[in-house]
Amino acid sequence: MTDRELELRNKVKAAAKEYFEAILGGRRKFDYIPASGKLLGIEELENMIDASLDMWLTAGRFNREFETKFAQYLGVKYSLSVNSGSSANLLALSALTSHKLAERALKKGDEVITVAAGFPTTVNPIIQNGLVPVFVDCKIGTYNIDADKIEEALSPKTRAVFIAHTLGNMFDMDRVKAICEKHNLWLIEDSCDALGAEYNGKKAGTIGDIGTFSFYPAHHLTMGEGGAVVTNNPELYKILMSFRDWGRDCCCPPGKDGVCGKRFSQQLGNLPFGYDHKYTYSHTGYNLKITDWQAAIGCAQIDKLDEFLKIREKNAKYLTKKLADLAKYLILPEIENGCKPAWFGYLISVRENSPFSKQELVEYLERNNIGTRQLFAGNILRQPMIVENNIPLRIGSGDLIFSKDLTQEHYRLLPNTEFIMNNTFWVGVFPALSENELDRTSNVIHDFVNKKAL
Q1: Which of 124, 138, 355, 420 has a beta carbon 3.0–4.6 Å from 424's, enabling a disulfide?
Q2: Domain that holds residue 114
Q3: What pLDDT score was predicted for residue 66?
Q4: How many CB atoms lie within 10 A of CB 285?
Q5: What would the pLDDT profile of 64-81 be if each residue is shown by its tens digit?
Q6: In a domain, 323, yes or no
Q7: How distant, in Å, are the alpha carbons of 102, 173, 272 from that of 251?
């Protein structure tokens, strides 16, 4: 970069900083307290401007920096950025179908253990790859998979476990990992809601074979849209990169040729010898890359991540203290043994014997400008995406059924998932919230409960 270019860039940044401080700076005021949100500063704006002035529209220098910083933060060997957490999940499971994995490759009809209480794009890739989801129930309090029920749900066709850490609270990694090792199962950690969480000192997403992350505005760090896949397995890394980059066999980054050193010296598939490696495809892949503009935001956000996590933890502990006196009516979140959570949201369940329903409480909160969210799909087996399609699946140790044949008896096989759908919701603890907003949340909940209890 020349001195002149640097001088001009600094002028643009100085003007942007002045604008930010005059127009965008200062603490946000909330008339409506959202359940989630982002926290951006001048550093993100300056990086966005830098990336814009580069006029490099696809992944470039900021992306390389982010992937390196992200891998270092997690302590993993390999990190790949993608355009969303949902794409990260699709990429992770698709990679396990690669022919390059030989006998360990997942094949159509193979089974994958998962849960019904969560976000749909943990389950969607199973269906999209022609695999069979096997649903196991969750525990109330942690809202994670009941690890004690996994082995009874296994069959000779079970090949993988694909589950999420619920709202930043990690599932029983020791138990799940041991089961996977005992039965030679792949383990994908959907850590989209758990960036920075730790289990016995190990970060979420780094213990299984593949970890996935989301950088949507609601998440622990944001790029607006974006996500990442991580692994310590070099073979999986190459496969993941192939699926992310159109399915091509070549590992050369955008705008660079000859990095692999084999551009015109191979014969693959039924192609003629020497066919350009940049246009040789080993998988039916996608284009799931991000732009450098997104990565630039991520580079600023990751430097703030630990502080964000501290604030989320502080806010969650504050809400627990404020709501503790309502334990007769509400179940407050429980932390999985061995876990240091990365609080995404604050889950609350209405006890079954309470004189009010979750629906009543949620509607009261919303009328009083307190944002709420469900635990995503609730029981995904009740969602139109399942019941309106003829999807093969199993529930626990049950036989294979098709989704159009689901009955109330099948739903009752997942009693805690049903409870979560009917009784559980969450409120916000994200870093832009202070004790003022948390006090408002607590006060509105107390007002409602006191009225109903009387």
Answers
A1: 420
A2: 51-302
A3: 98
A4: 21
A5: 999 999 999 999 999 999
A6: no
A7: 21, 32, 20
- CA-to-CA dists, residue 204 to 79, 188, 270, 339, 390, angstroms: 14, 11, 41, 10, 34
Domains held by the chain: number: 1
The Cα-based distances of 406 to 130, 389, 397 in angstroms read 19, 11, 15
**CA-closest candidate to residue 332, choices 346, 348, 343:** 348
Q: What is the CATH number of the domain that holds 255?
A: 3.40.640.10
Residues of the chain with confidence (pLDDT) below 70: 254-255
Q: Quote the CA–CA distance of 55 and 293 in Å, as a whole number.
A: 9
pLDDT of amino acid 262: 84
Model confidence, pTM: 0.96
Catalytic residue list contains 219: yes
Q: Is residue 399 part of a domain?
A: no
| Residue 260, pLDDT score | 75
DSSP state of 152: G
- Specify the pLDDT at position 254: 65
Residue 412 lies in a domain: no
Specify the pLDDT at position 256.
72
Q: Which residues contact 22 (CB under 8 A, 6 or more apart)?
A: none
C-alpha distances out from residue 74 to 230, 309, 359, Å: 9, 14, 39
List 165, 219, 220, 277, catalytic entry: 219
Tokens of 113: 């253990």
Tens digit of each residue's pLDDT (9 = 90 or more) over 174-188: 999 999 999 999 999
- The answer to whether position 205 is within a domain reads yes
Amino acid identity of residue 6, one-letter, is L
Q: What is the structure's pLDDT at 184?
A: 98
Sheet of strand 78-82, all strands in order from the earlier edge strand to the far edge: 78-82, 227-231, 210-214, 186-190, 158-164, 111-115, 132-136, 392-395, 401-402
